[in-house]
Amino acid sequence: MVGNIILYFVVAIVMIVFSIMAVTSKKILRAATYLLFVLLGAAIFYFQLGYEFLGAIQIAVYAGGIMVLFVFAILLTHRPNADAAPLDSHRKFAGIAASVIGCGLLLWALFTMPMLSTAEGSRCLCDALASGPDISMKMIGEAFTGTDKYQYLLPFEAVSVLLLACVIGGVTVARKR
Questions:
Q1: pTM
Q2: What's the distance, CA 45 to chain centroid?
């Protein structure tokens, strides 16, 4: 139990450090490598929670496939050792403001969105965490592939179309070179 808690905090700190390094790195290939470590950290969290399938998918799809796609796209469109142009100060402040607003909206949505429908009615995340409900993989799968309220089939399909467009764009850029 104590080992799991220590592992959690070590991996969380490593993920935070590599996330910051990925965003602030001036070399785009290094930023992609730092992102790889963040994705591997997320896989460690899945394994720690006992979701071996999701951990394996995280490694295979994101840390493996998506990162290879990113690296190929970077190598095909940029010089790997070229530094990125520094951002203007007004762009930095706009980015910071957008990040703070986005984090605030995410936290608000996280703590006010109904998570589970039970006999007592709909509960928010605070109530769900306090009562400690058992959420099975079947419930998560139904939430991702369902079309009812608070189910995510449409966004899931929209992301798949977006990834397909990225692959087609990458092939198009590669053919023009």
A1: 0.55
A2: 13
